[in-house]
Design goal:
Elements lengths: L1 H7 L10 H19 L1 H4 L5 E3 L4 H20 L27 H11 L2 H26 L4 H12 L18 H14 L3 H15 L3 H20 L5 H22 L2 H7 L7 E2 L3 H8 L12 H16 L3 H20 L3 E2 L3 H4 L14 H23 L1 H18 L9 E3 L7 H14 L4 E4 L2 E3 L6 E3 L1 H11 L15 H9 L6 H9 L3 E4 L11 H11 L3 E7 L2 E6 L7 H8 L22 E5 L12 E10 L9 E3 L12 E3 L4 E10 L5 E10 L9 E9 L5 E11 L12 E8 L9 E2 L1
Parallel strand pairs: 2-3, 5-8
Antiparallel strand pairs: 1-4, 6-7, 8-10, 9-10, 11-12, 12-17, 13-14, 15-16, 15-18, 18-19, 19-20
Length: about 750
């Protein structure tokens, strides 16, 4: 589709019979160049993906491309209801969609049925396409073929493009020169045909990713204004057609991605502000900002600005047509790379720019402007010193770029994706068993662990998501950009395994039907946690069958024909006045605030100062109403959801842990109090098992440890019938006898 668009976007010489041949020759030459650069990687394209800036994101991109292709091929209405974070709806909106990438990935996936190979080839194809798009633009504005071809290659190897990785699909820079080319053609001849081409390219660009939508909108605005300022006829017609194309494409795109807007409104602001200084701008030019990629041509591009300005003044066509948009885009990219300048915060702080989580990606904008400056400077040199001198300068620049960037193209480590290679048979078996015994949500354990050949602890959720491309069962967890609000709730329940009742809780919340347990080698935490979880699953009354395959356990749980009230609440999302599980948030009455707290095992040993105090408690609701638990994670943890930093809200029922220091006569002299959130709402008659981790006081001595219930801004749980934990602890030395539970 992109190549066909390029063919339609013909330059001034489109009537020349050799035009199509020159286009194909340029395209073929770029394919050959990038084929050679990528040659060391090609043999692994079917089984491995580049590690890239973030391996989890690389896996995520493979899953996104596969899910969208799968959904579009089965039921396009469900494309946003991805098979993650079940039972929440619309979970594709937690990450980018890469819709435009389906123009390449979809056919490749349909032919190969290999998502790894298809994703790699799709990403690789953006390089020759970007080079070709830039070459076509430069030819159109008056550059010589040698200059246009060289700068096309320079642009394709620009910032954040080397070494090869899948992340480039999130900022496919090929659309920047394409939309500029469309605007140049529209300004030269404002016709319906050219307006349709602009609408097509702009629409494809903004549907490629949200990052590219922002970059492309800025590019189109700047280039459009610069084109309008040019002398000539039909200015009004150009503006009318340009607005019609831009607004029309934007409206169509907005309809296609409408579910994202609801998610966007509830998302936190992530773009920080900064004070503009010369030092920060210089660091941006040199690619030295945190998270920025190296840019060996940055300084050279800045130097070429002066040559371009002089060339424009002396009438060099390419310099004259590129200087204004290139200046504005370069300055805008430099200013926005570190974040949002403080003076502009008032004006654009509430625009979509505030969701630009990684502002260093404005390097893409600066890279486009830098390529324009280099092209205009080479043309100016050719006019001043002769065309041959310009050609030799282009050859020198080409050699430098191939040495500095081309040699690093294949430098990234390729990661063998076990989910689709050595572990593929396991996921295939899950698919077969689910078809035979009933499909349903799946939980893969552990959520965090060790990948094969890597002792570092990492999230294993992206690996499970890639594995789900074989069976497509709903997953109750996931690695994604913006997690649903119930993520900390479900995550805390999973972490409570193997406590009694936890499997039933997961079934009640998510309708969980399948548990897939990785071999012991994947479990990195707490040593024997694998054995504890497996024993807990074997004891759980909800387990119906267990299969063993290559060290994996496939566990089938009891079928729940109808969703529970908890599942329905999670599907509905947060409702004002209720908890995530649907319990009304209100003060409890006296007969509702009755409960019992017990230690699962009595503690008799002394405690060391400052040591961890770990134990399990049972909390039983003896009242006649469900206790609300309102735990809201801090906005910062929504980005990945790996760590919960909780804020307790009013009407939440909590555990109150007190360390009461005693003197020699066991008279209280000081008290330290800690509030601990319960994991979930507790229904009448229900017993909640919960792990606790507290810190022992630093000061040695005798203490009375108390554990009771309380409702924040509500009931005190002090009426008759309430039972709390009270035990004496010697901090420092010796042992004392626990007195167990008491009133």
């Amino acid at each position: 589709m992109c190549f066909a668009t390029l063919i339609r976007l013909r330059g001034a010489d489109s009537d020349d019979p050799g035009f199509s041949r020159s286009l194909l020759v340029a395209a073929a030459s770029y394919v050959v160049v990038f084929g050679v650069l990528a040659a060391p990687l090609l043999r692994d394209f079917g089984e491995r993906i580049p590690v890239g800036p973030n391996l989890n994101d690389e896996n995520l991109i493979v899953w996104i491309l596969s899910w969208v292709s799968h959904a579009l091929g089965t039921d396009p209405r469900l494309v946003f209801d991805a098979n993650i974070n079940f039972p929440a709806r619309g979970q594709l909106t937690g990450s980018d969609h890469f819709f435009t990438s389906q123009l390449l990935f979809g056919p490749l996936f349909g032919l190969t049925r290999n998502p790894i190979l298809s994703a790699n080839l799709t990403a690789l194809a953006t390089y020759p396409l970007a080079a070709l798009a830039m070459q076509r633009l430069l030819l159109r504005v008056g550059c010589a073929p040698s200059t246009a071809w060289t700068i096309g290659l320079v642009f394709a190897l620009g910032p954040r493009r080397v070494p090869f990785n899948l992340h480039i699909l999130q900022y496919a820079n090929l659309f920047l020169p394409l939309v500029a080319l469309c605007l140049v053609r529209l300004r030269d001849a404002p016709t319906w045909k050219h307006a349709a081409s602009l609408a097509l390219v702009f629409g494809l660009g903004i549907l490629s990713s949200f990052y590219m939508a922002v970059l492309l909108a800025l590019t189109a605005l700047v280039w459009g204004i610069a084109s309008w300022l040019q002398r000539g006829r039909d200015r009004a017609r150009f503006v009318a057609f340009g607005l019609l194309a831009g607004v029309g494409a934007s409206c169509v795109a907005a309809v296609l991605i409408a579910p994202y807007f609801g998610r966007l409104g509830g998302s936190p602001r992530v773009l920080h502000t900064y004070e503009v200084t010369l030092g920060v701008l210089l660091d941006a030019v040199r690619g030295r900002l945190p998270g920025a990629s190296k840019d060996p041509l940055g300084v050279l591009a800045i130097v070429s600005i002066l040559v371009t300005i002089v060339g424009a003044w002396r009438g060099v066509q390419a310099a004259r047509r590129c200087v204004l948009p290139a200046l504005v885009l370069a300055l805008g990219g430099l200013i926005l790379m570190p974040g949002l300048p403080q003076p502009l915060d008032v004006w654009i702080g509430d625009t979509p720019l505030r969701f630009f989580a990684y502002p260093v990606r404005f390097q893409i904008l600066f890279g486009f402007a830098a390529a324009l400056f280099l092209a205009a400077a080479l043309e100016t040199v050719g006019v001043w010193a002769g065309r041959r001198s310009g050609q030799w300068a282009a050859v020198g620049l080409l050699g430098f770029v191939l040495y500095a960037e081309g040699a690093s193209f294949a430098d990234d480590t390729m990661y063998r994706v076990p989910a689709l290679t050595e572990n593929a048979s396991v996921y295939e078996q899950v698919r077969k068993l689910a078809r035979e015994h009933g499909e349903g949500p799946l939980l893969e354990l552990p959520l965090n662990g060790r990948r094969p050949g890597d002792d570092r602890q990492a999230s294993l959720e992206p690996d499970g998501m890639v594995g789900s491309t074989i069976h497509w069962l709903p997953l109750i967890s996931a690695y994604t950009g913006y997690q649903p609000v119930h993520r900390p709730l479900v995550f805390s329940i999973i972490r409570a395994l193997p406590l009694r009742g936890v499997v039933r809780e997961l079934i009640d919340m998510t309708g969980l039907r399948w548990v897939l347990v990785r071999p012991r080698a994947y479990w990195a935490e707490e040593g024997d946690r694998y054995d504890k979880v497996v024993r807990g699953l074997l004891r759980a009354p909800e387990v119906e069958r267990i299969w063993k395959l290559e060290g994996w356990l496939i566990v089938q749980l009891a079928h729940t024909p109808e969703p529970s009230e908890w599942t329905r609440a999670l599907v509905a999302g947060e409702v004002d006045g209720s908890t995530m599980l649907g319990t009304p948030r209100r003060p409890l009455a006296g007969d509702e605030a009755v409960g019992r707290v017990q230690l699962a095992r009595r503690r008799t040993k002394f405690a060391k100062p400052g040591d961890d105090y770990r134990f399990v408690v049972w909390v039983t609701n003896l009242g006649n109403a469900t206790w609300p638990v309102v735990v809201t994670p801090q906005k910062a943890v929504l980005l990945q959801g790996m760590v919960a930093i909780d804020r307790l809200q009013k009407h939440s029922v909590v555990l109150v842990a007190r360390w009461v220091r005693l003197d020699a006569d066991r008279t209280p002299v000081a008290t330290t109090e800690t509030l601990v959130a319960l994991r979930r709402d507790v229904r009448p008659g229900d017993t909640l098992a919960q792990k606790l981790l507290l810190l022992v006081p630093e000061e040695p001595g005798a203490y009375r440890f108390e554990l009771s219930l309380r409702q924040l801004e509500g009931a005190e749980f002090d009426s008759p019938g309430n039972e709390a934990v009270r035990e004496w602890v010697s901090v420092g030395s010796g042992e004392v006898e626990s007195v167990g539970a008491g009133r």
